[in-house]
Design goal:
Blueprint: E1 4-11, E2 14-19, E3 23-28, E4 42-48, E5 51-57, H1 58-61, E6 76-80, E7 89-93, E8 95-103, E9 106-108, E10 119-125, E11 128-133, H2 141-162
Parallel strand pairs: 5-7
Antiparallel strand pairs: 1-2, 1-8, 3-6, 4-5, 6-7, 9-10, 10-11
């Protein structure tokens, strides 16, 4: 039995959590810039302090689309703490429901029991068994490489606009 804190959210039909230590910040949904030729799972890019950061539509990534999506006014971006060798990522979710959910009881999930190990554990949060996602395992190696290329292009495009004389 552990005593951990989580960020809980809803993304399509999925209600899940992330370890609070994996989350850098929670942002209201700004305007996203589409990436030409990008897969549907890439919701776009957001300019965070001059850095083009990918916004992954978590419901599409995990194939948990369902119901009516929340209006943009209520949607959130969860900016993940940077992972070594990976591009900066935010997760586009319908709504963050708690930024410090307390889970008195957690249970590990075997990597073979979830697609690519994307569910690290289950946690009893507010009386419900909640899947806790592993940021390290949300994307496959090939997806990370493609995302890195899209991020590089978006950063180059952003840099071109910053160098335009006024």
């Amino acid at each position: 039995m552990t005593n951990s804190l989580y960020v809980t959210f809803r993304a399509g039909a999925l209600e899940a959590a992330l370890p609070q230590t994996a989350v850098a910040e929670i942002l209201p949904l700004p305007e996203l810039v589409a990436a030409p030729g990008a897969p549907r799972v890439l919701g776009g890019f957001v300019n965070l302090g001059g850095e083009a950061v990918a916004a992954l539509a978590l419901d599409r990534l995990l194939e948990s689309e369902g119901g009516e999506p929340a209006p943009a006014l209520y949607r959130h971006l969860i900016r993940l703490r940077p992972l070594a060798g990976a591009p900066a990522v935010t997760l586009l979710v319908d709504r963050v429901t708690d930024a410090a959910a307390h889970a008195p009881d957690t249970h590990p999930v075997e990597e073979a029991d979830s697609l690519g190990g994307c569910v690290a554990e289950t946690a009893l949060i507010d009386g419900r068994l909640t899947p806790v996602l592993s940021p390290e395992h949300l994307l496959l190696a090939e997806e990370k490489a493609r995302l890195d290329e899209f991020a590089r292009r978006a950063q180059d495009r952003l840099a071109q606009w910053e160098s335009v004389p006024e």
